[in-house]
Design brief:
Elements (H helix, E strand, L loop, with lengths): L8 E9 L3 H12 L4 E5 L22 H13 L4 E5 L2 E6 L10 E5 L4 E9 L3 E4 L14 E2 L2 H4 L8 E4 L5 H8 L5 E4 L8 H9 L3 E3 L3 E5 L7 E4 L8 E4 L2 E3 L3 E4 L3 H5 L3 E3 L4 E3 L12 E3 L10 H21 L2
Parallel strand pairs: 1-2, 1-6, 2-3, 6-19, 8-15, 9-10, 9-15, 10-11
Antiparallel strand pairs: 4-5, 5-6, 7-16, 12-13, 13-14, 17-18
Helix pairs in contact: 1-2, 1-7
Amino acid sequence: MAAAAMTTTQAYEVIVIGGSFAGLSAAMQLARARRRVCVVDAGQPRNRFAAASHGFFGQDGEPPLAMIEQARRKLLAYPTVALRQGTAVSATAQQSAGSPESGFAVVLDDGTHLEAHKLVLAFGVQDGLPDIAGLRERWGTSVLHCPYCHGYEFAGQRLGVLYHSPQSGMHAQLIADWGPTTLFLNGDTTLEPAERERLLALGIAVEPARIAALEGDGVALHGVRLQAHGDSGARLLPLDALYVAATTRPASPLAEQLGCAMDDGPMGPCIRTDANKMTTVPGVYAAGDATLMRHNATLASAEGVLAGVGAHQAMVFEQ
């Protein structure tokens, strides 16, 4: 019988889990501090559905995947950096006698074992989209979440907002600054009459009927197919873009595995962090969409910078 293969553990000073805007920004700070850092990336960035990223300093209109690839190349120019393609499936704290914190062990989906003194969780979130025919395949192209990221490209066109909560009236009012807007209640009856009248007075249409499907050529949106409602039969309402406030959840269970505290955000749970981006678990830092209630590539990158600096300074001052 062949001898069992030995498991080799690779050691670093910091492991960054997630290789998109937040994770690569964190790793860059650590690389420039000459620390041994490993970035573990599953290759599923949240904005992979978008053809272009807008509003990011000096990169307006660039494809997000190209921006990530460029950042990876620049990061690998530093000799203390390693990039691992894969998914981190478990993370555990390693304690030793007499030490309140001795590091962390991470296992990847291919069985690779990694160890580090610090962790940076930058795995982002997954979007929960409404179950409407034709919606999911248009996510990031003509079904949108952020007017600051994509609103300019649809300025002056026929815009819609999908109702999800009492705050949707304010969402519709915001979107109306980019063009004529309809708030689609999709059968919801919780919109207050006073709010409805206020929206109508602002020139925002309110459509109560349920949505049967989104229609258009390819990923373009040409209209919303509505079910029969009241005296109105089924019909197609022309539309060019629909804004949807998706629910979110962390894209990885690692924060929960490690015991990091979570806060309830308006669209889903967020990892709790302090001003230095450390979680409630000493030595574990977090950055990006998984820690934010407002999601934006620029904010995610800035959070990554803070997390990388925080992890580095903790290593310096703990000595």
